[in-house]
Input
Amino acid sequence: MEYVPVPYIKSISLNTGSSVTIKGKANMPFIMSPEMQVDFLTGTEEKSDIALSFRVYFGNCVVMNSRQCGDWESEEKYSCMPFVDSQPFALHISVLQNEYQIMVNGRQCYTFPHRLRPESVQTFQVWRDVFLNSVSVS
Output
C-alpha cells in the first residue's frame, strides 16, 4: 500500500462549505502514545497563526486550540476517543458558518468555533505519528 508522506503540507483556501478528509492510521500501537496533529495555518511559515489545531493523543484525548500573534488561546480538551487502536480512520473536517465540524469514521464527534476567519487559512498540515492513505480538500 502506498502512503502519503508525513508531514503533509498543502496550500489551501477555505470558506464556508469547504472540507478536508484525511484517511490513515496511527503508525504505532496506542500503548506507545502516538499523536496526530492537523493544523490550519494562516500563513506559510511555521510561526504563522493557527485557525485550528486538532491534536489527537491516540487512546487518551483530543485537544483543539488556535494560536494568534504567537500565543495559544484556551484549549478545548475531550476524552471522547473515536479512534480505535490499529484500525484505519477517516477524519472529516467541515467548515460551517460559525465553526468547524469534525467527524471520525462518519460520526460527528467535535465542533470548534471560528476564532480566526477560515478565509485567512493558507496552509494545511498533518504531522506526527501517522500513516496517511489519502488527503482530499473540497
Q: What stands out?
A: The two ends are 24 Å apart (CA to CA). The chain has no helices and twelve strands. The longest strand covers residues 19-26.
